[in-house]
Write a structure and sequence with these properties.
heterodimer; A: alpha+beta; five-stranded mixed beta sheet; 5 strands; 34% helix; 31% strand; B: alpha/beta; two-stranded antiparallel ribbon; 13 helices; 9 strands; globular; binds zinc ion; Emfourin (chain A)
Amino acid sequence: MKVTWGAYGGQAAVIRLGLPPKVLDTDALSETEAVELDRLVAAVAPAAGEERPGRARDAMSYTITVEDGGRSTTLTRSDATMSPAFAALLGWLEEHFARQ
Amino acid sequence: MTCHFNCIIPPHLLEKLLRSDDSEVRQAALDTLMTTSRLRGERGVRASFVGSAAAPGGGRRTVFDCKHSTSLPSAVFARSEDGPESVDVSANRAFDGLGATRDFYKAVFNRDSIDGRGMRLTAFVHYDKRYNNAFWDGHQMVFGDGDGKMFSDFTGSVDVIGHELAHGVTENTAGLEYHNQSGALNESMSDVFGSLVKQWSLKQSADEADWLIGPEIFTPGIDADALRSMKAPGHAYDNDLFGKDPQPDNMENYIKLPDNEMGDFGGVHFNSGIPNKAFYLTAVRVGGFAWEAPGLIWYESLKASHAETQFQEFANTTYRKAAELFGDDSAEQLAVLAAWQDVGIQISGILAGVARARSLAADRSGGTGGENGLATVSQQIGALAAQVTGLAKDVTALKSK
Ligand SMILES: [Zn+2]
């Protein structure tokens, strides 16, 4: 499984647009980490799709793409619309990235 | 007369009497205050008196601490209008920024908070971990601490706080749709009024102001002036990490991006550089404090705009409002005309040649030189007109009470 994620928009939208998305391959994870990531992905999967930010301004948007066995699912949420499950997955990915 | 005041008078009435035009009434009120303070103990009376005098009309502030979570409902209380200072620097800075912005709208445009009806101001600090942003969620403000590598605490720039709250003002007035040109105008309004909050707080003239948005939010190691420069869009930074600031300052370089999250909804934070530059040029041509004539023209134009207003229509509106407020062919109106022309937007109905001749005339008499007596007089008239407008609004507000 491969997970690609990026952040867009916000006050620093102009700067952020030049930054590449982050990638994580589950092959590079330990057994425990891979299980944990699977659990987090499963928790958000039913809510796939896109949500407009509504009345929020300068909120950041996040896209998480999960590629697994030829299937690809993309989720887009913003600061103003993300569910606790989405926040948990994003937080885990960012934590993992920061530790690398 | 004094005897009438020897009974217990409510502090709010005393306060009113202390401001009376009649010196006898003022003295009597003061006497009463002294008498009652002796009776009741000075500290208690002074507290109630000061309390009523300083009671804000609206826009009461509350700050919450997210404790690095993304969940606003689970944030904990940090500071309120009447409570003590917080031990948290970010909470206090957010609180002060909300206050500066609220006071700016009240003092300059006689606007009671964000919605004009005393709306409460709520801010959340320490949102998420390493969060490089500040946003307006449609009702309240949210600040991140920055990642500490590129960005530091977003409460550090009062123009950023003013920027976010201006989104609330725009939402309550024109309601500019947040994509493409109307979205870039929405962004520009936030930069204009965000910068004006800072300039007003520091009492800086258009010449003295830095015209930067977010100069404090980068870590010391980052070679960048700010997030955006209204004076020089496209020149806020140029470094290996961020690349070069891509903001255009002219319609010729308008950036077309996809109208979705990844395209910044058609580049709203990019193309705002064009109207930002037009405001800056207007302000330096008019001279003096940018929140006076230029700010008033922009504020009135924002109120006269609607959800789908594009650059051209907004430019036309500022030109019309400048005439309504300061007169046809006033220095202010010519400054507006020249400013839009310099960013590649011709005011509708004005021939390019005429506009150029008029703007040259405006340059000669108004902005750059500043030695011309006529220009000074017209600036003073402009400032007076702004004051008269403010007074007229005060009167209207009083009548409606
Ligand atoms: Zn904004």
